[in-house]
Design goal:
Blueprint: E1 2-7, H1 9-13, H2 20-32, E2 39-47, E3 50-54, H3 68-94, H4 101-134, E4 138-140, E5 148-151, H5 161-169, E6 173-178, H6 182-185, H7 192-208, E7 211-214, H8 217-231, H9 233-236, E8 240-243, H10 261-266, E9 273-277, H11 286-298, E10 304-308, H12 316-324, E11 332-335, H13 340-349, E12 352-355, H14 364-371, E13 376-379, H15 382-388, E14 393-395, H16 400-413, H17 430-441, H18 453-461
Helix pairs in contact: 2-17, 3-4, 11-16
Length: about 450
């Protein structure tokens, strides 16, 4: 029997995090682990140079909750990200040359100073792993001929290369799920350290993996094009390039739990509430939303903007602007630690989701909202056209007034400005999504025709 080894190291070590990738990993493991069929699906982690079978992905006491140790880990990790973000901004303002002595001196000064954060962080992570091992949440696993190793989690965070190469040398087939290539294609929105780590990871993956499964057709085409650039046509044609679509359920909703009273108050007024759900970082383009809603408020609109999402990188200026905004807690609201119960409530009571991202691999909040009957206004980018088709309304990223006018017209006429009615839209759940992934990850049919002739020609000219 074929075994699909589903890698979920980062979620295993960070059980309280609840961003998009974590939801994907939890949902796929939930629907595939223990299934009956020709393929045995086994969640695994890479830890200490060893492959381990996961007995318990999320500890029963911590689904969606944060322990005191996790609070400290988040605090040190967040401080480290801000510290290196300051280094990047300072280097840019000083105009230091990449190969100059001054830049190297600044880097090593920063590196030494950062030990005050990285050493406690690594100690806490080590302690957390040791405590997890005592709890026997995982046990060693021996690989077998015919195993397929599915890299589902955000493995660029993990030092796994030696282990994975040993597995590859033993004949294990490696398939990597690719969420996006944003650190490569839109590096201006990412932390400089992440861009370097991700580039190293992707270069290894593209040369080592037997196949790639993206979370959208748009990203599949980007991955294939990047593989052609890095490998050339002959090597790239040996790989599988495919995609699957994500599901739409919120997996951590607690029915007996009440939503945050502060959130309920946001929706208590008759004023329409527009929702933005995402990590707060530059690529998500929250600044565009503020500009559009400031135009609405200046014209007398009572529309409310509710921002839901944890604070990410390069967001210090934006968070400061929000905290100082005269409409904060009047027509502008922000929740940085909302659980799935609160998110479900927000989706159920909002007027529309507004999503102005510059770039995405999929856009999970789009399908979460639309599946619940909440219409979506989004930036006009290819992947959103793929997911939303004619059932979403699209605005111009270069012109915040286009969103302001769209919202004003919707509030005035009551007609949502999409081509087709949302009631006709259908999407898959996590069960269907997980079985799509299973089927495509275990394909063994020939893949030599997977690269279109136009892309082959472009590769030959590169």
């Amino acid at each position: 029997m074929t075994r699909l080894l589903i890698e979920c190291t980062y979620v295993y070590e960070h059980p309280d995090l609840n961003s998009g990738i974590q939801r994907v990993v939890r949902s796929v493991v939930q629907h595939l682990e223990g299934r009956q069929g020709k393929v045995e699906c086994i969640p695994v982690i890479m830890q200490g140079g060893q492959l381990k079978r996961v007995l318990e992905l999320i500890p029963p006491s911590t689904p969606g909750k944060t322990t005191w140790m996790r609070h400290l880990i988040h605090g040190f990790d967040h401080a480290r990200l801000r510290f290196w973000g300051l280094h990047s901004r300072l280097s840019g303002k000083l105009g230091l040359r990449d190969d100059g002595l001054s830049r190297r001196l600044l880097f090593w000064t920063w590196k030494l100073a950062s030990l005050s954060m990285t050493l406690p962080l690594r100690t806490l992570l080590w302690l957390e792993r040791r405590l997890g091992m005592v709890a026997q949440r995982s046990v060693p696993l021996e690989i077998q001929p015919g195993d397929v190793f599915l890299m589902l989690d955000s493995s660029w965070h993990v030092d796994f290369y030696a282990l994975a190469e040993r597995m590859k040398a033993q004949g294990i087939r490696i398939v990597s799920v690719i969420y996006d290539l944003i650190p490569l294609t839109h590096s201006q929105f990412c932390d400089a350290g992440l861009t370097k780590v991700f580039d190293r990871w992707f270069d290894w993956v593209v040369r080592t993996a037997d196949g790639f499964i993206a979370i959208s057709e748009t990203i599949r085409d980007e991955v294939r094009a990047e593989a052609l650039k890095r490998l050339g046509r002959e090597e790239a044609e040996k790989r599988l390039f495919d995609f699957f679509h994500l599901g739409s359920e919120l997996d951590l909703v607690e029915k007996e739990r009440q939503p945050d009273p502060e959130l309920v108050r946001v929706f208590a007024s008759k004023a329409p509430v527009y929702l933005m759900v995402s990590t707060i970082e530059p690529r998500k383009n929250h600044a565009y939303l503020l500009q559009a809603f400031e135009q609405l408020w200046a014209a007398g609109s009572q529309a409310r903007l509710c921002i839901i999402g944890k604070i990410g990188w390069k967001s210090e200026d934006l968070i400061g602007t929000i905290h100082r905004h005269p409409q904060l807690n009047k027509r502008l609201f922000m929740f940085n630690r909302l659980d799935d119960t609160g998110l479900e409530y927000a989706y159920a009571n909002a007027r529309s989701l507004v999503f102005p991202s510059h770039a995405e691999g999929f856009g999970l909040p789009l399908v979460e909202a639309m599946q619940r009957g909440l219409p979506v206004m989004a930036s006009d980018i290819p992947v959103f056209r793929e997911i939303g088709q004619e059932f979403m309304a699209y605005f111009d990223l270069d012109n915040p007034a286009s969103l302001a006018e769209m919202i004003d017209a919707y509030d005035t006429t009551g007609r949502f400005p999409a081509v087709s009615e949302l009631s006709q839209w259908r999407w898959i759940g996590w069960r269907e999504a997980s079985f799509q992934l299973l089927e495509r990850a275990t394909r063994t049919d020939p893949i030599t025709a997977s690269i279109p002739q136009t892309e082959r020609a472009n590769a030959d000219c590169a």
